Amino acid sequence: MHRFLVSGAVIAAALWIAPANAEESLRAVSFIPKNHPVMVQANAWVKTINGTLAGKLKINFVGGPEVIGRYQQQNALRTAVVDMTLSTVADFQDQIPEVSTFTLSRISPAEERKSGFYDLMVASFEKVNARYIGRLQYGDFYMYTKSKPASLADLKGLKMRTGSLYDKFMRALGMVPVTINAPETYTALEGGTVDGLAWPVFGMRKLGWTRQGKYVIDLPFYGTSNVVALMNLDRWKKLPPDVRKTMIDTTAAFEPKMVKYFQDEQQKEWKELDKVVTRVKFSEAENKKYLDTGYEVEWEAIAKRVSPEMLARLRKVSGN
User: Fold this and answer.
1) C-alpha to C-alpha distance for 271 and 72, rounded to whole angstroms
2) Which of 78, 112, 271, 296 is within CB 3.0–4.6 Å of 117 for a Cys-Cys bond?
3) Rounded to two decimals, what is the model's pTM?
């Protein structure tokens, strides 16, 4: 009987140890709804990672701001309430000024991994206990308005829906940025809370926003976008080294496909958008001023908060 009890204890111990090799489970949320067109490649990335690391790791993409509010997600990531966020880096710019460089980059994600940009951003996000994994979205941003602007002067005083990314640009143009979560944007446009918004081409038509924002300033900006995959740094460090390496390598291989997808889809979407919106531009001089302003205000803001050495490094590694 004594031997049986000992054997049973040994078996129990063996069974207790077994879960150490079990599949890691990560809970992820996104800054906008999971099914939004902007998140198409984020969903594809999750599927790719889960397929590549099947049996070792699984990302459970549980939803967007309906699960945890967009502006609560940064702290939720830092404190490991969630393991991962599919975020816009604009929501971190107050804490990490250099991450604004994501939208100012002039090179591809693949080039960023070679130039030193990627490694610099990995180090930067460690300040908020996060691990930068890679980019999940690519494409131009535009300003959409309810009334037709004939010149830059017509933009002054317009109330524009924003989400952190465009605040400084809008203010420099004399606009009034109004922070509104994406799901409430249509109501805000319809009710007159805002006179327009800034957004990529994806989602404008599908979400019905073009019923109100019928004019688009045809001067694209911030083409590299700023949606990224982030992971709680403590949780990241606990993953087995081979799993971490596979996640990074798989993401690096995924990014060029993601860029190609958005470039192709943007061309297709414009064919449909042109049926429901009117493109507008200004004079040649005002067009240049408009675009220059979008980049200058961001570089000026970064320059006020980082050392001259860091500013020079940021410009170099981002192709500016």
Assistant:
1) 37
2) 112
3) 0.84
